[in-house]
Amino acid sequence: MKSQMIITNLRTKSWTQAQNYCRQHHTDLASGLDQIYSEEFKTLQNSKELWISLFRDSWRWSDGSNFSFRYWDMDSFNDGLNNRTSKTHSSLGFVVTDNVILIQESKTWEEALYYCREKHHDLVSITNRQKQVWLQEKARNASTPFVWLGLRYTCTLGFWFWVTDEVIGYNNWDSNSKVDVCDMSGAINRAGEQKWVSKSDDNKFNFFCSKH
Known about the structure:
With 212 residues, this protein is an alpha+beta fold.
């Protein structure tokens, strides 16, 4: 899935401040091989130093994606090992990614699915806590009490699944609002604890689309 990348260089921030900004207003700092090697990133970078989502604990991307390639400036890398906090607390521009959009139209779950697949990419999946937090912020802007997710129950096989075929490892179900029956789909509360709830898929709610 290709994410839109946005450079923010007018607000110089520390790495932590940049990460918090991206998660509040977009999705996260830029991460992963596809984004960092892309022509779009090279154009945005334009020979300037920019924050990306990689941090050392050991090194990993802050959105949890796999870190399996190496493209270090070794002088900077060794300097970071010797003085870890120098770059962490300095101010650089940074690149954010935003690949989720809240559609403020009221549609049934199936209508929302077709809309996302026709105009964007798909209904959104939530596979980790960080993404849950991002979507909670966006959900507060919904015009309906719930927002559809790409979460569906198959009564034939008897389990919930993401329509994007991603594994349900992380979950945030409201245990009192999870019903395992046919014609049910998953949504997130707009307010309160913003847990996942199962709703009859003929309800009409706003919905989240993931973008190409």
